[in-house]
Amino acid sequence: MNIAKHMEAIFLAVVAVIGATTFATAGAPVQPSAPGVSAVTEAAMPVVVVSARRLSTAEKAQLPQ
Predict the structure, then answer these.
(1) What is the pLDDT, as a whole number, of residue 10?
(2) How far apart are CA 64 and CA 60, in angstroms?
(3) What are the tens digits of pLDDT across the range 12-50?
(4) Which of 1, 5, 35, 59 could make a disulfide contact with 55, Cβ separation 3.0–4.6 Å?
């Protein structure tokens, strides 16, 4: 099947599916969040610290493969 030949039909099918899902989800009620609960938490970002030295080329060659 030549996709370039059918690109217009593929585009119209995708637009139809997107339109249908938009209308299907438009009537869904919005769930209110609990009072005092923030959706964004103020947590510290975890940080990984690597304190090892890099292997030399000779040391890398000795490692089992």
Answers:
(1) 92
(2) 9
(3) 999 999 999 888 877 777 777 666 555 556 678 889 999
(4) 59
Rounded Cα–Cα distance for residues 28 and 21 (Å): 11
- Dig out the tokens for 56 from the structure: 């030399």
Provide the whole-model pTM: 0.39
What are the residue ranges of helices labelled H in 1-65?
7-26, 57-62
Rounded Cα distance between 31 and 28, Å, is 9
9: Cβ contacts below 8 Å, ≥ 6 apart: none
Return the amino acid letter for 11: F
